[in-house]
């Protein structure tokens, strides 16, 4: 993943690193921006969840447990490599407190790292003064790597709407990864992710916020998938 992020690209080209997990699969059925973004040819979709690995294997795809990866596994490594290679990073999202704490930690750990950011609580309406200020700040920073962590589907809507105005080689949909780095979210043990149990840790850590995602969305997603299978079934001659 790091080689993909930091390999040289022709000027004016970019990739978007999107994430696919059960929550994201649910969002594709209720938010067209997320679905559009993942379907674009310049979006690299990361398997961020063991249930997706199991579903793909059931459909005959040759994917293994090792293909499952998440931002928590390599965000810190990406900052280290950016510092080593002199590449800039911009973090867009989270609360002002999370952002400032995380930026301070990154600058203290890697003094040579060129890193800046802006919180995620701004008006994303096209033409708004806040949006224009955010886009101008990203452009002025000239980052190689933009980490957008505003939660699904807000972060996907932002990138889908304004990706052509982001002169950044790599745009990553990072979710809560920077909040983990900043110490505002408890990091699940990595073995839980490999066995498809990371959701239990997140649910236990924040049941009020995560109950809908982990307890209600799976049956709703099952309903969406069943309807899609029914509508796409072969018709009798």
TrEMBL record:
Naturally occurring in which organism (per UniProt): Aureimonas ureilytica
Record's protein name: Glycosyl transferase
Keyword Glycosyltransferase assigned: yes
GO molecular function term, any single one: hexosyltransferase activity
Pfam family, one: Glyco_tran_WecG
Protein keywords: Glycosyltransferase, Transferase
UniProt keyword annotation of Cytoplasm present: no
Source species, domain of life: Bacteria
